Amino acid sequence: MAGGDDFHALADNVLQRLELKRLKTRTVALREGLAKLSEQLASRTDLLRNTIDASQAATIAAIDGLSVKMRQREQKAQATFDRTLGNIAHRVLSIALLFLALIITAGVIIALSIRLPLQQIMTSMRAITQGHYDRRVQGTEARDEVGAMARAVEVFRENAIAKREAEDGLRASKEKAESALLELNAAQQNLIDAERLAALGGLVAGVAHEVNNPIGISLTVASSFARRTDQFEAEMRSSTALRRSQLEEFVRTSRDAAQQLVSNLHRAAELIQSFKQVAVDRSHAERRQFSLGEATDQIIASLRPVLKRSPISLSVDVPEGLVVDGFPGSYGQILTNLFLNAANHAFPDGRSGAIAISARPRGNDDVEIIFADNGAGMTPDVQRQAFDPFFTTRRNEGGTGLGLHIVYNLVTQQLGGRMMLESRLGQGTTFRIIMPRTAKRGPADTATESHGTTQWPTRTMSSS
Fold it and tell me: Residue 145, exposed/middle/buried by CB under 10 A (0-12, 13-18, 19+)?
């Protein structure tokens, strides 16, 4: 068994050696094949490299040729494009210039079509503002906005013409009204002066009548005394001796005559002095300090003739020592007009009645004067118009309607006071005057207002 195993082992080794030889042979052949293959591959690689290099060189040459051609074509295309673009630019520029010229031309035409009418409108407006309305506005026929503006300016021109005509008419009317007002003021001032002069004339006539009595009596006494003196002188020159009784009778007669002369002449002197002071105050409107009581007595003395002709009793209650710095003439005019107004209106047709004049201090700065009567009184309508100029209830009997108006103006304007009226129909009338102790206005101020446009001051009334 062991020999058989060795045989088998030798056999296997021989086989393995054979196989190894075969394998070596094949390996050598493979190596030779690989070498040949490597040589072929190297030759082919060299051939391929040469081919590739040749192809690459050809390709590069072709690419370079193509690049040159492309560059040439690009240059030609760029030149063609530049030429085309230049032509297009020239054409666009030409078209743009053409359109610009057209736009400029159209703009100029449109501007001229707008500017010329606007210039015309501005010229028309300038003429209107300068007062030249005769030139009509041009372009009103157009149907565009400029035409609307022109029509508006034309309407403005027509309105300006109408306004000027209206202003001319108003100016003419104003001048006529001012002229009429000046004439009315002059006529009113003349009537007021005439009213004052008439009152002063009545005062003169009354004082003359009053003075005539004492002077007539004095003249009669003087004539009788002159005859008695002549008779006594004749008795002295006669051969008959004078008796003591004759001398005593002559002395008694002389004393009586002298007493009557002194009494009557003193009375006449008082009347003349009162009249002189009142007349001076009325005519000169001098401002001075005066006693209200003395001025009232002087004014009442000048009104005695009216009192004698009328059954009117008069009471005066003015305290002594009440001194006023003002215008005694104006105060006298106020009392005179109030008295004559009462005599004519409160006591018509000789009706009897009573008038009361009183005054009293009102605080430290004012004086209150009350003029009251128990006459016919006034209706509310008459009270509302009592101080209006030219208003009178006795127009047919010669009334001017300026008495109370003068009173009101003197109180409010010259004396700087205020005036209230209280009246009831059938129960009399009361005028309440409150004026400052020192007048605030002067005659120059009042005269200045009388020559200007008169504005009647607001009256203060209390009607019952």
Answer: exposed
